[in-house]
Amino acid sequence: MNTYYESENELNLNKIWQESLEEIAKKVSAISYDVWIKSLEVVDLKNNTLVLSTSSNSGKQTILKNYKDIIAASVNKVHKAIIDVEIIVSSDPEEEEDEQPVVQKTIKPVSKTVESSSFNPKYTFDTFVVGPSNQFVVAAAKSVAENPGASFNPLFIYGGVGLGKTHLLHAIGNYITDSNPKLKVVYAPIDKFTGELTEALRNSKNGIISEFKAKYSTADVLIMDDIQSMIGREATQNEFFNIFNELHEHGKQIVVASDRPVSELKQLAERITSRLAWGILADIGYPELETRIAILNKKAYLERYNVSREVINYIAESVTTNVREMEGMLTRVVFYAKMMGQSVVTMDTAREALKDIAVQNAETIDAGRIIDCVCKFYSIKKEELLGKRRTKEIALARQITMYLITELLSMPLEAVGQIFNKDHSTVIYAKRQIANECKTNRKLAVEINDMKQMLNGK
Ligand code: ADP
Ligand code: MG
Q1: Statement to judge: residues 164 and 279 lie in one domain
Q2: Which ligand lies nearest to the CA atom of residue 300 in the structure?
Q3: Last residue of a domain, one of 312, 344, 360
Q4: What ligand is nearest to the CA atom of residue 131?
Q5: What is the CATH number of the domain that holds 64?
Q6: Residue 430 pLDDT > 50
Q7: Residues 138 and 227 in one domain
């Protein structure tokens, strides 16, 4: 008996879907599964096509682009008669119109209370490349975007300059305004907040700043960028504190970003830093080479740049600690090639365009500094690190050093091996080992990130 049939003619769609989910889970990452797949609902089966619904249009677009084929193949594997899937948005008025023309259309809010224009449409989760250095923060950001106020509150994102904090804040904002248009999302970099506050105080009667207060304290989601700029600004800190309390008390979502971790924001009032630590702290690290290449490929694709893999690799190897700078180099190279009348960027042009920058980079960090840094970080002697002893700690520190050298410098693997009297295969192994370990071991990932920051003089 075929268990997919409840009665003679009725297919048990839910059962098929549950088994398909198991198949899909084998093929997509755990995060993708949680964010995009798990929440899909089976709606119908129409002419051998399984109809699934998702809650937002942006979700639908992502699923169509990235997961539809996997979903269709998995469903087909479970039940041969189903050959395709269709994704609809659960409250999509157009879809409803098709099916039930008499039913009243879902009413969309007439005037959005959201300042939707404040979010850059280019900064979405789709355009953000995920790698070991940022997968934790991306998962946290998606979780907050999907369930504002319900998961991590506040979400505190920190990381060095140009590593994607603002991009992620906008991605959260874009996602919520899309999927939950009734929510009031307020976004402000601290400088803007301070500017508005100053203006309000200047125009206030008896120090009452009701309009300013009304804007911020009625937010369902408050997103504040660059909060390190609150340092030294008493009035800003005061207002932020009041608004924070009011919103948090009412279960409203708060998201902040800073280029310093809480522990380094010591100059802020303690009552603020302690509140920021209530929720979750998620750091963005420096992206690994592989992620940097993926970011450049994505950018080249989005901007329709015609750039070879060789040039992409060259740029990714030259800039290691700032994605904005790296993107700037790509733009520069493409611009340079255009000026030279080339439709495809050649390696010579790339080298020429980036001559000064590459030199600058090579001067600042070398293998010796990396070795010193690791020794200092783990309190071991240089002779031990470079010697033959194989205690667990020293072996690990050695692998970390090899990893950092390959990440931060474009040195041939043989030369890296020679430093340790090893051949290049040991270096490749160390590199892979540490990269893998960082995916699951957050302590190590943070330590490595700290060392990179130290090496970059931060
Ligand atoms: P921050 O606010 O941390 O200084 P931004 O968010 O402004 O950095 O990011 C700088 C640039 O780098 C932006 O153009 C952003 O889109 C890009 N960027 C950073 N990280 C990524 C990533 N993982 N994937 C795609 N683009 C990224
Ligand atoms: Mg920023």
Answers
A1: yes
A2: 1
A3: 360
A4: 1
A5: 3.30.300.180
A6: yes
A7: yes
Ligand 1, pocket-test mutation among 323, 329, 330, 453, most atoms within 8 A of CB: 323
pLDDT band at 77 (very low <50, low <70, confident <90, very high): very high
Are 179 and 130 members of one domain?
A: yes
* Least confident range of 199-208, 211-220, 314-323, 384-393: 199-208
For ligand 1, the distance from its centroid to the CA atom of residue 304, given in whole angstroms, is 18
pTM: 0.63
Domain boundary among 329, 360, 391: 360
Q: Whose CA is nearest to atom 5 of ligand 1?
A: 164
pLDDT band at 300; cut points 50, 70, 90:
very high
Which ligand is nearest the CA of 172, by number? 1
From 122, 130, 163, the mutation candidate for ligand 1 (largest count of ligand atoms within 8 A of CB) is 163
If asked whether residues 379 and 350 sit together in one domain, one would say: no
Closest residue by Cα to atom 26, ligand 1, is 128
Closest protein CA for atom 23 of ligand 1? 129
Among protein residues, the one whose CA lies closest to atom 25 of ligand 1: 128
Within this chain, do residues 195 and 258 fall inside the same structural domain, yes or no?
yes
Residues with a CB atom less than 6 Å from ligand 1 = 123, 127-129, 134, 159, 161-167, 295, 298, 323-324, 327
**pLDDT value of residue 438:** 86
- pLDDT for residue 110: 33
Closest-CA residue, ligand 1 atom 9, reads 164
Q: Is the pLDDT of residue 142 over 80?
A: yes
Q: Which ligand is nearest to the CA of 323?
A: 1
Mutate to test the pocket of ligand 1, among 167, 170, 291 (most ligand atoms within 8 A of CB): 167
Residue 109 lies in a domain: no
- 26 and 129 part of one domain: no
Q: Are residues 132 and 261 in the same domain?
A: yes
Instruction: Please indicate whether residue 407 or residue 36 has the higher confidence score (pLDDT).
Output: 407
Residue 223 backbone phi and psi in degrees, to 5: -120, 120
Q: Which atom of ligand 1 is nearest to the CA of 160?
A: 3
pLDDT in tens, 311-365: 999 999 888 888 999 999 999 899 889 888 888 888 988 988 888 765 555 556 7
